[in-house]
Specification:
The chain is of the alpha/beta class. It has a single domain, classed as Alkaline Phosphatase, subunit A (3-Layer(aba) Sandwich), CATH 3.40.720.10. Helix content is 27%, strand content 17%. The strands form five sheets. Strands 7-6-5-8-1-9-12-2-13 form a nine-stranded mixed β-sheet. The longest helix is centred in the middle third of the chain and has 23 residues.
Length: 494
């Protein structure tokens, strides 16, 4: 762990203080962090096609949040925010690492920071000062190379897994981790690693973060579940979700069920907080530039937009929290909350201290977990996604019921919505409420200045005919088939 001398001595004091607390005062924390799961991909959020009995049961026994947001529209920014407790714009991880590149668009977008800085005091490091054993399983995506992996960021046990879902396609990147069984689907393997961690650490406080690759594309699920949803789609004449995608969601549900059962078998249900959420919104389509294919995957209705967009479909995600001593079963909370709230929540739950010298943008959710009708001492949430993906570069702000999106591609476009009346963001009120819209736009700009957000700037090589081309940040070559046919591989972007 990289720490200053002052923080080192503070950590020693906190470890000693933490050791005086009983196990009941330091509950276990399990964070299940699904990849690309949309707001309505599970039954308790309104999905009537995919079977998610274990996730639905988690909601029945805990609290379901209706207005919870991923801090970013794609994975790495949200992961950065969760680990640091900060809005990722402060660190500069505003795109998935290394990000997309459209070299002929109107604006040049900023390159993201390529790894979570090693001097960041992560949520795992903060919990370790309260005597927690920490574990990480699954996708990391916060820096390449062994020096940037979870075991260098406060995690005692680290099992970083790369690659897609099907047996033989994924691989373990962390040394010393048990290998998957032959023919084992990735979420089953990830569940087994987590169950083993729970068994080994049940007698002491632990923090475990599970970050599966599901339900991220490419689509891939075991044939029995795919056959089940193919037949169901034919019988019900449903076009969405894609049967393979539906099967992947059910694989995640199986994983949740196994982990909840392992906690119960270990006898630690009443002393374990289980948190279920997603890193960003879901996908409408699977985008394959190599094959130039656009296959429908799921629907985010009634939300507008998808992953890679700052509309609700890109950032509003499920959040379920089960913790029997604190959370009343079957409760629903509508207070706006966001991924970087987990950091102070977990530290608060562990009776720990937040690090000094590191801004924490999050707010503890403990008041809401005690009372679903409570409100946090915060009125605004902010997003900054200055990149092309499934939308144009933009920033946004939500202030209670009001939300403004400002596009940063030189067009000057602004969208302004009242989410309490228009969750689908269908009615742009910027002309009907110019004063309120101008006030939110001013506040958004002030926030960007405060966090020193990196901004796009005009592109001298803008070419309207080539603006929609995707190029690789790693190779400097076009990655979609349309661009490769029109421009030889030797031609470089800007």
């Amino acid at each position: 762990m990289r720490i200053t001398t002052q923080w080192f001595y503070a950590a020693i004091i906190l470890v000693f203080a933490g050791s005086q607390l009983s196990a009941a005062d330091r509950p276990n924390i399990i964070l299940i962090f699904i990849d690309d799961m949309g707001w309505q991909d599970v039954g308790c959020y309104g999905n009537d096609f995919i079977d998610t009995p274990h996730i639905d049961q988690l909601a029945a026994e805990g609290m379901r949040f209706t207005d919870f947001y991923a801090a970013g529209a794609v994975c790495s920014p949200t992961r950065c925010a969760l680990q640091s407790g900060q809005n990722q714009a402060r660190i500069g991880i505003t795109a998935h690492i290394p990000g997309h590149w459209r070299p002929f668009e109107r604006v040049i977008t900023p390159r993201p920071t390529m790894a979570l800085p090693l001097d960041t005091i992560t949520v795992a490091e903060a919990l370790k000062t309260s005597g927690y054993t920490t574990g990480y399983v699954g996708k990391w995506h916060l820096g390449n190379g062994p020096q940037f992996q979870p075991d260098r960021q406060g995690y005692d046990f680290s099992a970083v897994i790369a690659g897609p879902h099907l047996p033989g396609k994924y691989r373990v990147q962390s040394p010393g981790v048990p290998k998957p069984k032959p023919g084992q689907y990735r979420t089953d393997y990830e569940a087994e690693l987590c169950i083993d961690f729970v068994k080994k650490n049940k007698d002491k406080p632990f923090f475990l973060m599970l970050s599966p690759f599901a339900v991220h594309i490419p689509l891939g699920a075991m044939s029995a579940k795919v056959d089940k949803y193919t037949e169901k789609a034919e019988r019900t004449k449903r076009e969405l979700p894609h049967p393979v995608y539906a099967a992947m969601v059910e694989h995640c549900d199986d994983m949740v069920g196994r982990i909840v059962s392992a906690v119960a078998e270990a006898g630690i249900t009443d002393n374990t907080m289980i948190v279920f959420t997603s890193d960003n919104g879901g996908l409408y389509r699977r985008y394959d530039y190599r094959a130039a294919a656009d296959d429908n995957v799921s629907s985010q209705a009634p939300l507008k937009g998808e992953k890679g967009s700052l509309h609700e479909g890109g950032v509003r995600v499920p959040l379920i929290v089960k913790y029997p001593p604190m959370v009343k079963p079957g409760t629903v909370c509508s207070e706006p909350t966001i991924s970087y709230d987990f950091y102070p929540t977990f530290v608060d739950l562990a009776h720990g201290k937040l690090p000094t010298g590191q801004t924490i943008d999050g707010r503890s959710l403990i008041p809401l977990l005690n009372d679903a009708n409570a409100r946090l001492a915060r009125n605004t949430l902010h997003w900054h996604y200055p990149h092309y993906h499934h939308d144009r570069p933009a920033s946004s702000i939500r202030e209670r019921d009001w939300k403004l999106i400002e596009y940063l591609d030189g067009t000057g476009d602004v969208e302004f919505y009242n989410l309490s009346e228009d969750i689908g963001e269908t009615n742009n009120l910027v002309k009907k409420n110019p004063g309120r819209a101008a006030d939110l736009k001013k506040k958004l700009n002030q926030w960007r200045q405060q966090v020193i957000a990196r901004m796009p700037y005009p592109n001298p090589n803008y070419d309207e005919q080539r603006a929609d081309q995707w190029w690789s940040m790693r190779t400097g070559q076009p990655v979609d088939s349309k661009a490769r046919k029109r421009f030889p591989p030797t031609e470089k972007g800007q």
